[in-house]
Amino acid sequence: MENNIKFLQTVPLFNGIDEEELTHLLGCIGAKKKTYVKNEFIFLSGDIPTSIGIILSGRVQIIKEDAFGNRTILNDLSAGAVFGESFICGGKFPLTVSAQAAENSSILLCPFDLLMHMCPQACEFHNTLIRNMMVMVSRQNIKLLAQLEVTTKRSLREKILTYLAQLAQEQNSATVTAPLGRVDLADFLGADRSSLTRELKRMQEEDLIQYDKNTYTLVNAVGVK
Amino acid sequence: MENNIKFLQTVPLFNGIDEEELTHLLGCIGAKKKTYVKNEFIFLSGDIPTSIGIILSGRVQIIKEDAFGNRTILNDLSAGAVFGESFICGGKFPLTVSAQAAENSSILLCPFDLLMHMCPQACEFHNTLIRNMMVMVSRQNIKLLAQLEVTTKRSLREKILTYLAQLAQEQNSATVTAPLGRVDLADFLGADRSSLTRELKRMQEEDLIQYDKNTYTLVNAVGVK
DNA sequence: AGTTGTATGTTGCATTTGCAACATAAAGGA
DNA sequence: TCCTTTATGTTGCAAATGCAACATACAACT
Asked: What is the DSSP string of A63-95?
């Protein structure tokens, strides 16, 4: 666990909390390390969570599956990311989404339930933790708004362009590398995979974009160099 | 302002903060009441906000407009609601959305910028405020996830059914009243208004739903009475 | 009541899109 | 290396959908 502590100190959630405090905290609440194989579910929609998850290594996707088997990827998280916190911090809501290991992953499960709901005087760094959490959830919020901007677009082409424009802004380049393959990207956009490929091809033919695998270049992009 | 204090005490953000503290707080940070006429913008996309808004009366919509003039309604808020907080609490991000008065409204603008970023020892109730904010932003997060569930649906019919199912769960009834009219609902679903009307009509013909104005009944709904 | 502006309903039409089915390519394991 | 699995590309087709244009209904204001 010791080498994990060093890593955990770099995680935004534990900003401003020193090594001893962190060691004490994790022991005190009974955090447990657990490994998951690819495609294994970490949290399941419908459960009432008591722990947040912190990714020590690997990759986790937050997904939503409906009765028809349609899958939507809501988030794609890598080492250092925290998940499940909204449902804990909002006050014990049943999960409306699932967390699934996108590859073999090592997760630290922290029973934050008590921590978030007990009296604020519990520990001196308790308030720091809540403040960090507020910042993280707020940013997550902004991220969700960005995704909504994509998914509410009326045509697939607009969705693709909006998504690529967001990546371009993040990566500050008109040539961007998407973290998702075709299957996952289609799920993210809320579209059919074959429709996505088809539209990408059309857009390339019309010289709107150029792409190879998961690298895309916006041609005549405005606002980015 | 006195009668506003009574009202503000009922707002979740100020949970656990008593009248004197609240009066002091608002004076200290320089909160200002301002009125807006219908359709007036309160916050504009691109601005870096320094205040959060609290609705004293009226109705405010959080919207996103793109270059083509497509408008998406991200949220529809009434008295007591707070907006703009994610961009303050996440750490001074430029707004990616706008806030617009949906009817004549009275708004309390609270310069929370400093408050959220200054040293935690500022006031004794400062930590209460941050905790409240964390809970609110987390819930907002869950709400955004619900909206994503709707907008990522692959067909308009599924979007409508998902939206109505969510309302049915909230209102615990198979007959629900939507807070949005056709125009706004179409924007919310990310669809064309005429397509929405057409699909609603078809669904009624197929006896999936029944509706009149903004009241909808799910026929053969599962999970609700 | 009359006027104006906005919300809503309706319809034809071209286009987009999901869906299914199949081919090919790439990746991972035995 | 071979085999299996998964990802990706391709295409035909029917259905869904955006769009434009217009009619009607409703609400607000004078």
From this structure: EEE-TT--EEEEEEEETT-EESHHHHHTTSPPP
